[in-house]
């Protein structure tokens, strides 16, 4: 049997691990693993210099490549080290044997990696390479693994499987294909082509949406004003490159806050986005590797019971009501624990009292407290909706950052606000179950992909705390200018321009779109994807229709949700051709998840499903 894995990121490494575990000893298996980047994939490439300083968005103890959940390994021992325990044990020895990795990774480990550490992305890439070596070393004689560091440019169906063509011109015949390409670049739209042409014509600089570690900002200096569109995770990468990457230094003050010492080479940065605010910072880590919040209200049995009374569906308004109730409960629990004037016995009494939501409006009078029992979570996600002036917004922005820092410093377990935000991550599995198993009607799927996705992103998909602290320091150093919400960009005859909701206009010599390209296979800048599309081997998902007759998920590749096998243009199953991960975003809820120790992470579920299907033939 021959199997081709296209993409060598965490998802296909999980498939490879599963194949090694499940291949019968009397079955000969050859696995060809393809990726133009080193094992680990593009995002974690340790040979991108910026990945030595760009941070993962997950704490080191909450990252693994070992499926210890299915293997019933409940201890956190050395047999399947997570990223933290690997960094504290095997990493230095591995790096000493592999001088091709920059000394920065040895220095990072020597500086101490702890459970409260966001490691560099490059170190995750080194961990992936080590993991691949471990898999190769335990392979039985009947399994052969070949890694090809090149792009697969074409795939055609044959009578006995598939024929792959690599960029080198080499062809590979295979029985099964598992395609997990990660986040693909998008072709430029007409508007982006116009911006690129304008930049070239005027000798300006335009950086369309891309992977931040691949941006080259060397041409930008203190003579430039840079418009940055987007305040999400990619923004913080670009921010670091344009400041510390230009020689500036962040200094820690006595109170723990940061200041920024300019190098004199930094461009001036004008920042903005649709919402106007960056997502909330991750709190100081107080959770173990597999420690998840156990909800009181937002439980799968409770939600299934609601569906049973509503023709198998959970109304979006009910879904949000119960989720908000859970957030409020967590907020109140943490607020009570923070009360210094209340005895432990009295706290226990109050905590028991608030288990009934009907008591929330009574708790302050009953115990002479001043808790905020009517917190608006929509207001927390979008607090500037009714703001009328740019001046007021900019003042609010700075105070918002300061409060977010203070909240995050209290911890992801104990902080009233940040602790509540963090449970959104822990409850994602329940949301995914409801979403993936069609517990919502078609109109509500539209709301989930718009309103709720923005809500979830703003509150639970933020950067490490240090990045918010750095942003505040850069604003105070006058390196960064804040703009209002609804930040949009264009150009006039001489420069790039940006406008915001308040009618303010900003001019720049450079424009950066600080985000990854939109997930849409139809516009993916990938010869393989476009060939598959032209052949009719892949097509858009047409299973959910918008009120206007368009298909809600037409940007995602259609697969059989039970097996991840591709469904072609004629609505026929393409047997033995599997697609997992990010190209399915929208069909599946929140696919950009790194595996977590001792947890049934989606990447491991996908891998088990695919491998079981391969051996079920």
TrEMBL record:
Domain FAD-dependent urate hydroxylase HpyO/Asp monooxygenase CreE-like FAD/NAD(P)-binding positions: 4-183
Matching Pfam families: NAD_binding_9
Transmembrane segments: none
Source organism superkingdom: Bacteria
Name used for this protein in its record: Nitrogen regulatory protein P-II
């Amino acid at each position: 049997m021959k199997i081709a894995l296209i993409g060598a990121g965490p998802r296909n490494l999980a498939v490879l691990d599963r194949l090694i575990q499940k291949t019968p000893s009397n079955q000969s298996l050859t696995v060809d693993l393809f990726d133009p980047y080193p094992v680990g994939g593009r995002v974690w490439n340790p040979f991108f210099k910026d990945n030595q300083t760009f941070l993962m968005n997950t704490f080191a103890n909450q990252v693994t490549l070992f499926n210890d959940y299915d293997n019933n390994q409940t201890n956190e021992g050395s047999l399947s080290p997570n990223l933290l325990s690997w960094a504290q044990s095997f990493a230095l020895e591995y790096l000493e044997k592999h001088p091709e990795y920059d000394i920065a990774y040895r220095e990072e480990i020597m500086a101490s990696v702890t459970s409260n550490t966001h490691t560099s992305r490059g170190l995750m890439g080194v961990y992936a390479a080590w993991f691949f070596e471990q898999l190769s070393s335990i392979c039985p004689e009947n399994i052969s693994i070949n890694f090809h560091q090149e792009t697969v440019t074409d795939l055609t169906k044959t009578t006995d499987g598939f024929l792959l063509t690599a960029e080198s011109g080499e062809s590979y015949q295979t029985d099964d294909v598992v395609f997990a390409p990660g986040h693909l670049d998008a072709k430029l739209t007409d508007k982006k082509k116009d911006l690129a042409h304008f930049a070239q014509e005027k000798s300006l600089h335009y950086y369309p949406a891309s992977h931040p570690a691949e941006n080259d900002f060397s041409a930008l200096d203190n003579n430039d004003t840079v418009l940055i569109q987007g305040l999400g995770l990619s923004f913080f990468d670009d921010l670091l490159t344009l400041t510390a990457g230009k020689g500036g230094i962040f200094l820690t003050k006595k109170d723990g806050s940061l200041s920024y010492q300019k190098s004199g080479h930094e461009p001036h940065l004008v920042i903005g986005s649709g919402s106007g605010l960056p997502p909330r910072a991750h709190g100081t880590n107080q959770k173990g590797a597999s420690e998840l919040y156990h909800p009181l209200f937002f439980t799968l049995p409770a939600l299934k019971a609601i569906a049973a009374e509503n023709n198998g569906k959970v109304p979006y308004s009910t879904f949000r009501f119960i989720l908000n109730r859970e957030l409020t409960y967590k907020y109140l629990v943490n607020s009570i624990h923070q009360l210094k004037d209340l005895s432990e016995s009295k706290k226990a009494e109050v905590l028991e009292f608030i288990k009934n939501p009907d008591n929330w409006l009574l708790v302050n009078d009953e115990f002479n407290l001043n808790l905020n029992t009517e917190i608006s979570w929509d207001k927390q996600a979008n607090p500037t909706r009714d703001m009328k002036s740019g001046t007021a917004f900019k003042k609010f922005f700075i105070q918002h950052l300061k409060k977010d820092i203070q909240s995050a410093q209290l911890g992801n377990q104990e902080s009233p606000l940040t602790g509540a935000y963090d449970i959104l991550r822990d409850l994602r599995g329940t949301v995914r179950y409801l979403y993936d198993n069609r517990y919502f009607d078609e109109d509500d799927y539209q709301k989930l992909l718009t309103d709720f996705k923005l809500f979830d992103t703003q509150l639970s998909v933020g950067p490490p705390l240090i990045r918010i602290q750095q942003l505040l320091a850069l604003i105070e150093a006058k390196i960064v200018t804040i703009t209002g919400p609804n930040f949009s960009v264009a150009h006039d005859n001489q420069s790039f321009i940006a406008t915001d909701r308040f009618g303010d206009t900003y001019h720049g010599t450079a424009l950066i779109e600080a985000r990854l390209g939109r997930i849409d296979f139809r516009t993916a800048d990938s010869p393989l994807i476009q060939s598959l599309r032209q052949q009719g081997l892949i097509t858009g998902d047409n299973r959910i229709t918008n009120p206007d007759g368009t298909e809600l998920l037409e940007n995602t590749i259609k697969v059989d949700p039970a097996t991840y096998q591709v469904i072609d243009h004629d609505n026929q199953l393409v047997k033995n051709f599997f697609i997992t991960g990010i190209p399915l975003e929208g069909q599946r809820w929140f696919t950009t998840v790194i595996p977590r120790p001792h947890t049934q992470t989606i990447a491991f579920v996908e891998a088990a499903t695919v491998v079981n299907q391969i051996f079920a033939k």
